[in-house]
Amino acid sequence: MPRNAKARRVLETLPVITDPWFYAVAVPAVLLVGLAKSGFAMGFGALATPMLALTVPVPQAVAVMLPLLMVMDATGLQQLWRSRDPALVRRLVPFGLLGTLLGALLFGVLPARAVSALLGVLTLGFLTQRLLFAPRATGARPPRWVGSACATASGFTSFIAHAGGPPLGAYMLSLRLPPPVLSGTMAVFFATINASKWLPYSVLGLIDLRNLLTAALLVPLAPLGVWAGVWLTARVRSDWFYRLAYAGMLLTGLKLLWDGVR
User: Fold this and answer.
1) Distance from C-alpha of 1 to C-alpha of 37, rounded to nearest angstrom
2) Most Cβ neighbours (<10 Å): which of 15, 52, 70, 128?
């Protein structure tokens, strides 16, 4: 029997997703999230759940992604922990956890397309503001309440659709931090947020054997994107780093807006 046929028969005996179209989008989605986790292409990470949602329902997509995100978080923390800004972490994480609590309370009540449309509008609005009113190198930092609001929105959208990158990224990019510091701070923030999702996801019935085993098949890919992103962050000029981040947020904003209004 051909090797591919044997592999297919083994998969069919396991409680995993067997649709080849799912894996056709899952493989690039996982690698894309890994790049975003490193901070190199932070805007692109929010595209993963919409990509998976092309082949499976959104709740199943977020359930499959959570274990993979945890593997990426562990890899990112190992690489970026020393680069974090401790003061920013202490200030932003509590508001991010507040956002996850709001997401848990509203999950299944608030239509997913409404969340997508709102997030898309906010992301595109931020980019428009940055284009029309580009900050000066000597300009004042945004007020602290802006960071708190963005962190809360990030925790909320992260819980709903693993799309927390654009809200927090909007604030972090405005600080014009050195790329390694920005990447390390966001790595610690999202590692904490993702760890907080396990209990409510389990209560909501999203964590089951089928989703866990499907995620296990994709786990070997999880660290690759992170490692590639960390390597690139240390070697790409900061101006190109920010251009890529803005490009990722533009594509994400357009995709989320389209998902919300179509």
Assistant:
1) 40
2) 52
